Amino acid sequence: MKRFTWFNATALTLGFAFLYLPMIILVIYSFNASKLVTVWAGFSTKWYGELLNNTQMLDAAWVTIKVAVVSSTLATVLGTMAAYVMVRGGRFMGRTLFSGMIFAPLVMPEVITGLSLFLLFKPVFTQLSAQTIILAHATFSMCYVSVVVSSRLVAFDKSLEEAALDLGCTQFESFRLVTLPIIAPAVISGWLLAFTLSLDDLVIASFTTGPGATTLPMKIWSAVRLGVSPEINALSTIMIAIVTVGVITASISTKRAALRQRAEERAAAG
Amino acid sequence: MRRLFLISVPYLWLLALFLIPFVIVLKISLSDTALAIPPYTPQLDLTTGWEGIKSFFGALDFENFVWLTEDDLYWKAYVSSLQIAVFSTLFALLVGYPIAYGMAQAPEQWRATLMMLIILPFWTSFLIRVYAWMGILSQEGLLNQFLMWLGVINEPLIILNTNKAVYIGIVYTYLPFMILPIYSALEKLDGSLLEAAEDLGCSRFTAFWLVTIPLSKNGIIAGCFLVFIPAIGEFVIPSLLGGSSTLMIGKVLWEEFFANRDWPVAAAVAVVLLLILIIPIILFQRNEQKQREAEQ
Lengths: 270, 296
Description:
The complex is a heterodimer of chains A (270) and B (296). With 270 residues, chain A is an all-alpha fold. Chain A is built from 11 helices and no strands. Helices cover 79% and strands 0% of the residues of chain A. The model of chain B has no long low-confidence stretch (mean pLDDT 87). At the A-B interface, helix 1, helix 3, helix 4, helix 5 and helix 6 of A face helix 1, helix 4, helix 5, helix 6 and helix 9 of B.
């Protein structure tokens, strides 16, 4: 018995207004001609033009993307391995410690993770750089990847792997030919999650970076500490647009895949 | 052989980049500041064998922790972090529950879209979502302009750079974490239980209070932990939206590290923050485990 009442409709309208209005306002004011972000002075795209001429900002964006691609790929490999070990690995020495180390980074305050990695890196590396950010990001992202992948591993039927082994596959072949295609959607969404976490991270990157390696969030941070700036609004709008297109495309394609699968199942049953 | 490889690679990675750094934090929190330049005394000298180990542990002391209790800045920062985290969790629950309830009551074909709309902000940059409020809450910002235009207020409200703005920021950014677990609990709720309650003479409100709320308890608990735990150590929100009087432990740690460059004290601050977080983290994990077992 579901009853969609006026109360429900109001709660949803107000709730989504609260979630989305700030971002919509941000986008609108990125097209404001005035430097004062609270006064509307007509439509203009000049802040986008200035953004494209801001080489420091573009350099930072490039560093951020490189760090995000490398660290999320590393995190996906490590996280998938960790998930496989946790779900299929059986018993081994120090399993409790291992699962604790996978869970803990998810709830650890970023300032602590950042500080601890800095104190580790400082004596080991002669200079902190983009490489040390990559190591830091891969470490906390792999835990998110392993959570996403292991939920998929738990759900699928172990006997499929066993069948492959019975039919003469080696352990590795059974992983590559049976397990990997089944968990692929989870591995991909794990990679995407790791990628966005890395793109987004200010705190851990600030602790583990060195001279010359400034990421986009660090650049945004130093700009917005001084107050609201229309150029940052323009940059935010671009980032929001990319994410929105990405998420909507992904959700449509998963919906299509689900529909196709249902149709195939129906055809097979009929 | 292959199994050993599979286990050891992620295991060693996490040992080296997660566990060992914590041991280092603990060690440095017990060390003395040598003008913020490493190496910190004492250093472990294994070449002298047992004597070296003994003198290493002998030289560690709780000086930095004593310092934390002497300066009431730290004490106040811990209390105020806890207070801000508790209240913003309650506000997030009050705002989030009706939304989750509305989603669960919505027609089936809407739900996937509503769900996507809740998750979408989570993929957008955290920093940008916090920044968006700066233009809204400032003294000449849009909220004040709007309220003055309505005639509700005559003078602008001062919200930005106060704790109020921090509450708004935390509720706003962590709201999806509150909504999703509650929604998934409410969605599973069997509507016939409510019908039964009403047939037996409950009013709709009593039925909600006696049936719906208890059955969504696990979602409420999970949501509260998911907001409370990250809120305690939050740094970006108090720095951008809070004022100079807003004390939160994440901000204090950051300043101790970047402005004062006092790494031993920053490490001690981190250790205490971790001690505060251990209890909620363990409770949260237990709640999750209980739920998983209940589902099986």
